[in-house]
Amino acid sequence: MNSLTDLRERGGKGIVLLLWVNLALIVARAVWGTDASVVVLVGGGVVVTLAATASWLSDRTGATTRTVTGLAHGVLVALLVYGFTGSSLQIDMHMYFFATLAICAAWVDWRPIASFSPLRPSTICCSTRCFPPPCSPERRPSRGSSSTR
Q1: How far apart are CA 80 and CA 3, in angstroms?
Q2: Radius of gyration of the chain, Cα coordinates, nearest whole angstrom
Q3: What is the pTM of this model?
Q4: d(CA 149, CA 146)
């Protein structure tokens, strides 16, 4: 076994474990209450996590597994962002995209990063088309206004 394969074997276990941690976070958010659809959150999370885990079980370090797990991480974070709809923490959940993207680098492959990367801007585009962004001009106080807190 060469060192790259060894690194991917060890890293893959952590990457798949993080998929299940993300699913637990999604379920916790659904249990605590959310403005988002619980069926979409939990159902989507379960399907994505099971599909990525099945891929990993069939070939623990293959190119398909690396790509699928990278995509799965992006989808699970998008579901978490969706789960925090209406919460002041939704903006903070967007930062989790970057943390999980960094985790995907453990595969030492461009494919999981390439499959993950388009999800971040696409969630921004989708959410700004449907909802005003949290820092949109409509929500900011106008210049010269004397709003005090």
Answers
A1: 34
A2: 18
A3: 0.79
A4: 10
- The distance of Cα 116 from the centroid of its chain, to the nearest Å, equals 9
What are the tens digits of pLDDT across the range 3-31? 999 999 999 999 999 999 999 999 999 99
Give the whole-angstrom CA distance, residue 122 versus residue 102.
Answer: 18
- 108 vs 19: CA distance, rounded Å: 18
> Two tokens at 48?
């994505």
Q: Which pLDDT tens digit goes with each residue over 72-113?
A: 999 999 999 999 988 899 888 889 988 999 999 999 999 999
Would you say 65 and 111 are in contact if contact means Cβ atoms under 8 Å apart?
A: no
CB 113 within 8 A of CB 101: yes
- Residue 117 has a CB neighbour count (10 Å cut-off) of 16
Helices (H) and strands (E) in the chain, counts: 7, 0
- What are the distances in angstroms from CA 43 to CA 33, 50, 55, 84, 91? 16, 11, 18, 16, 23
124 burial via Cβ count (<10 Å: 0-12, 13-18, 19+): middle
What is the spatial distance between Cα 12 and Cα 24, in angstroms, rounded to a whole number? 19
